[in-house]
TrEMBL record:
Residues 72-91 bind DNA. This is TetR family transcriptional regulator. It comes from Cryobacterium suzukii. Keywords: DNA-binding, Transcription, Transcription regulation. GO terms for molecular function: DNA-binding transcription factor activity; transcription cis-regulatory region binding. The keyword Protein biosynthesis does not apply.
Length: 240
């Protein structure tokens, strides 16, 4: 259930996410995550006993089971066995829990762009850099599916995506501007930065509907289709 409605894709994702949590968390915590009303009665203010990622996974499980808007930070803190203050130190708000891994993968993107071979076409370098930032270890994929499912389904998370995606778009914009001898404030590199960000999520959406385990083929196809369209446009412009 997400925001009061049930979806078969979401239910499947929730079950997969819970199976991962069972492997990394004590059974009592998994049970409390699945039944937040019980978790509410647990003592608050305990020192943190789980990692930031484990807390994020608990939050994702609650969002999928009970709805994003219906789940509170108090629910998540109680299910994780930590205090609200600790939770807010980890995540300023609920949306940051969903965007947790995307935010951390930004460093991989920027590093890949900084070390991109100079002889590679800028659009190909961007595609390679974006893909390098997507961690697709089998243990991570169910969590990524849960995150993307929520982002696609919850309007408030979609609105938040614009702000969360800005560092990604800015990194791509600066790279393209530098490679093409443009000013980062010019319209073209900024449009391309936005375009690659949205192409990535087109790939994620295709992945969700496919039922396949890895998003990489779908994200890569979307990014390369966008790159080919850009290269064709550039070639046409040069002939004018």
């Amino acid at each position: 259930m997400i925001n009061g409605r049930t979806d078969s894709c979401v239910e499947d994702t929730s079950l997969i996410t819970l199976s991962v949590l069972i492997q990394v968390l004590p059974e009592s915590r998994v049970e409390s995550m699945a039944t937040p009303d019980i978790a509410e009665s647990r003592g608050r203010g305990r020192p943190p006993t789980v990692s930031v990622d484990a807390v994020a996974e608990i939050g994702l499980g609650l969002f999928l089971a009970n709805g994003f808007d219906e789940t509170t930070m108090t629910n998540i803190a109680s299910a994780a066995g930590i205090g609200r203050k600790t939770l807010f130190n980890y995540f300023p708000n609920k949306a940051d829990i969903v965007w947790n891994r995307f935010n951390r993968q930004l460093e991989d993107l920027t590093n890949a762009l900084e070390h991109a071979p100079i002889d590679i076409v800028s659009t190909d370098a961007v595609v390679a850099a974006v893909l390098s930032g997507l961690h697709t270890h089998p243990a991570v994929l169910p969590i990524m599916r849960a995150e993307v499912t929520l982002i696609q389904a919850v309007p408030s998370l979609q609105s938040y995506a614009y702000m969360q995606g800005r560092p990604w778009r800015d990194a791509i914009t600066r790279f393209i501007a530098d490679r093409e001898g443009l000013d980062p404030d010019d319209t073209l590199p900024e449009v391309l930065g936005h375009g690659y960000w949205h192409a990535m999520f087109v790939g994620f959406r295709k992945w969700l509907h496919s039922g396949q385990s890895s998003p990489l083929p779908y994200v890569e196809t979307a990014l390369r289709d966008y790159s080919r369209a850009l290269q064709a446009a550039f070639a046409h412009e040069k002939t004018q």
